[in-house]
Design goal:
single chain, about 120 residues, alpha+beta, 6-stranded mixed beta sheet, 2 helices, globular
């Protein structure tokens, strides 16, 4: 059985997908763009501000599902420019503590809306 997770405290889905799906004790978060849910825009600044917003959006969805970042077992970080990895990693480290989730990070050609970063997660309840 799967259950859709949705909150107004993160950007709504802009296509045929859910913010997250809970199934069999896991929460699968869709990729979170750095969209501020109150303004509908990216935060001012660069990769650090966008990483922070993507992670705040993920936190809001996890909270709606009754979880938090300590439940995260795997993340995938998509970057528009791999040169931003170090700056992204600085902000990422502010949000997670040991034992850290597994993580993959990739540079991609483009991200929706011209974002610099998109982050998806899997969490265990």
């Amino acid at each position: 059985m799967k259950k859709a997770i949705s909150t107004q405290n993160a950007p709504g889905a802009i296509g045929p997908y859910s913010q997250a799906i809970e199934a069999n004790g896991f929460i699968y978060l869709s990729g979170q763009l750095p969209i501020d849910p109150t303004t509908g825009a990216f935060p001012e600044g660069g990769i650090k501000e966008q990483t922070r917003q993507s992670l705040l959006n993920a936190q809001a969805i996890l909270k709606e599902a009754g979880a938090d970042l300590s439940n995260v077992v795997k993340t995938t970080v998509l970057l528009a420019d791999i040169a931003d990895f170090g700056a992204m990693n600085e902000v990422y480290a502010e949000f997670f503590s040991a034992p850290y989730p597994g993580r993959s990070a990739f540079a991609v050609r483009d991200l929706p809306k011209g974002a610099l970063v998109e982050i998806e997660m899997i969490a265990a309840k």
